[in-house]
Amino acid sequence: MQTTADISSTLPTLQPQAPAVRLALAPHHADRAVLDGGWWPHSRDPATEVPALVAALTQRYGPIRDVMLNNATWAEHPRRLPADTRVIRMGWFASQDPALAIAITAKGDQLDLLVVPPATSAADAGRAMAAAADPDVFTSAAGILAALSDSVPAGAGPESAGVWDNEGGRAFGGPRVPEASGPPAATIAAVIS
User: Is residue 66 one of the residues assigned to a domain?
Assistant: First the structure.
């Protein structure tokens, strides 16, 4: 006679599926561009969000070895995460702009991504990601978020955007963020080639 324990041990275990990565990338990696794209995570849990980001970036740029994020805006701070059949190193920095994620490829290329806060509206997120993926927009990640409605995270205001001017970029003075005519947020559910 089979018991309930015997039956439950023979049933397959269903693993919850991670949500699709919401990522918009520039058409190509350009040295003159401020950002390489925008990422809109579903939460502030790196163990859930970073592996999907790494898998998407790996498809375009090859293996990713490091991801660096601001430590104040994420729930946990693991030093390593399994992602895309590899283990990647995580860097957590108080000095890093909360609106910026940095990924380093196995070849040493640096990818700078706008991080759109998870609670941002779909319309604002779509506009911000479109601006971040546009190689003709020379606004910092913090500047793009500052141009949106009230979706600016703490520490990501115009004062942090001025850093880029000291590095040879455009001074903060009213970032150009595409109007609602940019790609709808619903279409930014996967990598935009």
Answer: yes
Query: Looking at 4-99, which runs of residues are DSSP E strands?
Result: 23-25, 37-39, 64-70, 80-83, 86-93
CA distances from 58 to 17, 106, 113, 186 (A): 19, 10, 14, 23
DSSP state of 154: T
**pTM, two decimal places:** 0.71
pLDDT tens per residue, range 92-142: 999 999 999 999 999 999 999 999 999 999 999 999 999 999 998 899 999
Is the separation of the CB atoms in 100 and 155 below 8 Å?
no
Is 179 among the domain residues?
yes
Structural domains of the chain, count: 1
Residue type, 183: P
Residue 28 lies in domain: 19-187
* Tens-place pLDDT, residues 36-86: 999 999 999 999 999 999 999 999 999 999 999 999 999 999 999 998 788
88, part of any domain: yes
Q: Amino acid identity, residue 56? A: A
Asked whether residue 158 is domain-assigned, the answer is: yes
